[in-house]
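Good day; I would like, with your permission, to put a structural problem before you. What I wish to show you is a protein chain and, alongside it, a tokenised description of its three-dimensional fold. Please examine both parts with care and let me know of anything in them that strikes you as inconsistent. Thank you for your consideration; the sequence and its tokens are set out here:

***
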Amino acid sequence: MRPIERSEILPLEEWERVRAEVRARMIERKKRRRVAIGPLLTVVFENRETVLLQIQEMLRTERIRDERAIAHEIATYGELVPASGELSATLFVEVEDREERGRWLTRLAGLGEHVWLRVGADRVRARFLVQPGEERTRLPAVNFFKLPVGPDTEGRLRDPAVRVALEVDHPAYEASAELPMAVRMELAGDLLAP
């Protein structure tokens, strides 16, 4: 997919005018891009549209108008736009209680070596993006990863006879989740995007 360009970012005032409509559309679309892996982990698959929304919302929340700061947000979130032949995702550790979440984040250290996408008999390991200041002994509550997939993955995602699942085989947490066909169709579309 093409990277996000500065020319695509709306000024704050213009974003406010279209925000409700765009967010409503994207909330519906993100429902087809979200997968729970057991009771603790949720993955949202990213693409240009979801990343562009994140950038616009960050600029709005932080009231960012400085061009260097805007460029920084584009570069930071732009890493989530999948390149050709890959999928991209955000992984959330969803534990409401703060203390319990802290215990899980420590237990789940090293999770990046234990998240997989299974497409039929093939298994692809997620490549987690290291965040600034990330500790080796504690997993961040929000993580980003890429999945380098083969050229035939788009067709196999569309084939209901092919099993497609996210799998976690961490010593402290094992779970898997079949990807619903709506999610698979979204991902197949991502792999065809220029």
